[in-house]
Amino acid sequence: ELCYRDGEEYEWKETARWLKFEEDVEDGGDRWSKPYVATLSLHSLFELRSCILNGTVMLDMRASTLDEIADMVLDNMIASGQLDESIRENVREALLKRHHHQNEKRFTSRIPLVRSFADIGKKHSDPHLLERN
User: Fold this and answer.
1) Residue 50 covered by a domain
2) Number of independent structural domains in the chain
3) pLDDT tens digit string along 15-51?
4) What's the CATH code of the domain at 70?
5) Cα(101)–Cα(12) distance, rounded to whole angstroms?
6) Total Cβ atoms within 10 A of residue 73
7) 55 Cβ contact list (under 8 Å, min separation 6)
8) In angstroms, how far is CA 121 from the centroid of its own chain?
9) Residue 87 lies inside a defined structural domain of this protein
10) Which end of the chain is more exposed for a tag (fewer CB within 10 A), N or C?
11) Is 33 domain-assigned?
Protein backbone atom coordinates (compact mmCIF):
# COMPACT_ATOMS: atom_id res chain seq x y z
CA GLU A 1 0.00 0.00 0.00
CA LEU A 2 1.14 3.53 -0.67
CA CYS A 3 1.12 5.10 2.82
CA TYR A 4 1.94 8.50 4.30
CA ARG A 5 4.17 8.01 7.33
CA ASP A 6 4.89 10.33 10.29
CA GLY A 7 4.94 13.58 8.35
CA GLU A 8 7.48 12.13 5.95
CA GLU A 9 6.90 11.42 2.29
CA TYR A 10 4.77 8.61 0.94
CA GLU A 11 6.26 5.11 0.84
CA TRP A 12 5.16 1.64 -0.23
CA LYS A 13 4.44 -0.55 2.79
CA GLU A 14 4.31 -4.33 2.72
CA THR A 15 0.94 -5.46 4.10
CA ALA A 16 0.80 -9.14 3.11
CA ARG A 17 3.03 -11.93 1.88
CA TRP A 18 2.64 -15.45 0.58
CA LEU A 19 4.96 -18.22 1.79
CA LYS A 20 2.96 -21.35 0.99
CA PHE A 21 0.07 -19.59 2.76
CA GLU A 22 -0.99 -15.97 3.10
CA GLU A 23 0.14 -13.86 6.04
CA ASP A 24 -0.91 -10.29 6.87
CA VAL A 25 0.77 -7.60 8.93
CA GLU A 26 -1.05 -7.46 12.27
CA ASP A 27 -2.65 -4.25 13.54
CA GLY A 28 0.39 -3.15 15.57
CA GLY A 29 2.56 -3.53 12.49
CA ASP A 30 5.31 -5.40 14.31
CA ARG A 31 4.70 -8.99 13.28
CA TRP A 32 3.03 -11.28 10.78
CA SER A 33 -0.30 -13.01 11.39
CA LYS A 34 -0.65 -16.77 11.51
CA PRO A 35 -0.51 -18.31 8.01
CA TYR A 36 -3.91 -19.08 6.53
CA VAL A 37 -5.39 -20.33 3.26
CA ALA A 38 -6.60 -17.30 1.34
CA THR A 39 -9.92 -17.50 -0.45
CA LEU A 40 -11.20 -15.41 -3.33
CA SER A 41 -14.74 -14.43 -4.07
CA LEU A 42 -16.20 -14.95 -7.52
CA HIS A 43 -16.28 -11.17 -7.94
CA SER A 44 -12.51 -11.01 -7.21
CA LEU A 45 -11.82 -13.65 -9.86
CA PHE A 46 -13.86 -11.71 -12.43
CA GLU A 47 -11.96 -8.56 -11.47
CA LEU A 48 -8.65 -10.38 -11.93
CA ARG A 49 -9.73 -11.66 -15.36
CA SER A 50 -10.74 -8.15 -16.37
CA CYS A 51 -7.38 -6.73 -15.24
CA ILE A 52 -5.46 -9.38 -17.19
CA LEU A 53 -7.54 -8.86 -20.34
CA ASN A 54 -7.74 -5.07 -20.26
CA GLY A 55 -4.72 -3.99 -18.21
CA THR A 56 -0.99 -3.97 -18.77
CA VAL A 57 0.58 -7.40 -18.36
CA MET A 58 4.26 -7.74 -19.22
CA LEU A 59 5.62 -11.17 -18.34
CA ASP A 60 8.89 -11.12 -20.28
CA MET A 61 10.96 -7.96 -20.27
CA ARG A 62 14.64 -7.27 -20.31
CA ALA A 63 15.22 -4.95 -17.38
CA SER A 64 17.57 -5.06 -14.45
CA THR A 65 16.38 -2.15 -12.29
CA LEU A 66 13.06 -0.98 -10.92
CA ASP A 67 13.49 2.28 -12.86
CA GLU A 68 13.69 0.38 -16.16
CA ILE A 69 10.65 -1.74 -15.28
CA ALA A 70 8.60 1.34 -14.35
CA ASP A 71 9.56 3.08 -17.62
CA MET A 72 8.66 0.04 -19.72
CA VAL A 73 5.29 -0.43 -18.00
CA LEU A 74 4.44 3.27 -18.33
CA ASP A 75 5.45 3.30 -22.02
CA ASN A 76 3.20 0.29 -22.62
CA MET A 77 0.29 1.91 -20.76
CA ILE A 78 0.63 5.15 -22.76
CA ALA A 79 0.88 3.26 -26.06
CA SER A 80 -2.29 1.29 -25.27
CA GLY A 81 -4.21 4.41 -24.19
CA GLN A 82 -4.55 3.38 -20.53
CA LEU A 83 -2.52 6.33 -19.24
CA ASP A 84 -2.36 9.95 -20.37
CA GLU A 85 1.13 11.25 -21.18
CA SER A 86 0.53 14.33 -19.00
CA ILE A 87 0.51 12.32 -15.75
CA ARG A 88 3.33 9.93 -16.67
CA GLU A 89 5.91 11.60 -14.38
CA ASN A 90 3.53 11.65 -11.39
CA VAL A 91 2.77 7.94 -11.80
CA ARG A 92 6.47 7.14 -12.27
CA GLU A 93 7.32 9.04 -9.11
CA ALA A 94 4.64 7.16 -7.16
CA LEU A 95 5.85 3.78 -8.46
CA LEU A 96 9.44 4.51 -7.46
CA LYS A 97 8.73 5.70 -3.91
CA ARG A 98 10.71 4.02 -1.15
CA HIS A 99 9.64 0.46 -0.30
CA HIS A 100 9.40 -0.50 3.38
CA HIS A 101 9.36 -4.21 4.10
CA GLN A 102 8.12 -5.67 7.35
CA ASN A 103 11.44 -7.30 8.23
CA GLU A 104 13.37 -3.98 7.92
CA LYS A 105 14.14 -2.32 11.21
CA ARG A 106 13.86 1.46 11.46
CA PHE A 107 16.51 3.24 13.47
CA THR A 108 14.99 6.15 15.34
CA SER A 109 18.31 7.63 16.37
CA ARG A 110 21.26 8.46 14.18
CA ILE A 111 23.77 7.14 16.73
CA PRO A 112 26.11 4.72 14.95
CA LEU A 113 25.86 1.10 15.98
CA VAL A 114 28.74 -0.06 18.17
CA ARG A 115 29.76 -3.67 17.85
CA SER A 116 32.06 -5.62 20.09
CA PHE A 117 35.43 -6.88 18.89
CA ALA A 118 34.05 -10.41 19.27
CA ASP A 119 31.26 -9.70 16.76
CA ILE A 120 33.70 -8.15 14.31
CA GLY A 121 36.05 -11.12 14.73
CA LYS A 122 33.23 -13.61 14.06
CA LYS A 123 32.36 -11.88 10.81
CA HIS A 124 35.92 -11.82 9.52
CA SER A 125 36.76 -15.36 10.63
CA ASP A 126 33.68 -16.94 9.06
CA PRO A 127 34.84 -20.19 7.34
CA HIS A 128 32.72 -19.42 4.25
CA LEU A 129 34.40 -16.06 3.80
CA LEU A 130 37.85 -17.57 4.26
CA GLU A 131 37.16 -20.22 1.59
CA ARG A 132 36.12 -17.55 -0.94
CA ASN A 133 39.28 -15.54 -0.36
Assistant:
1) yes
2) 1
3) 777 878 888 888 776 788 888 888 889 999 999 999 9
4) 3.40.930.10
5) 8
6) 19
7) 82
8) 34
9) yes
10) C
11) yes
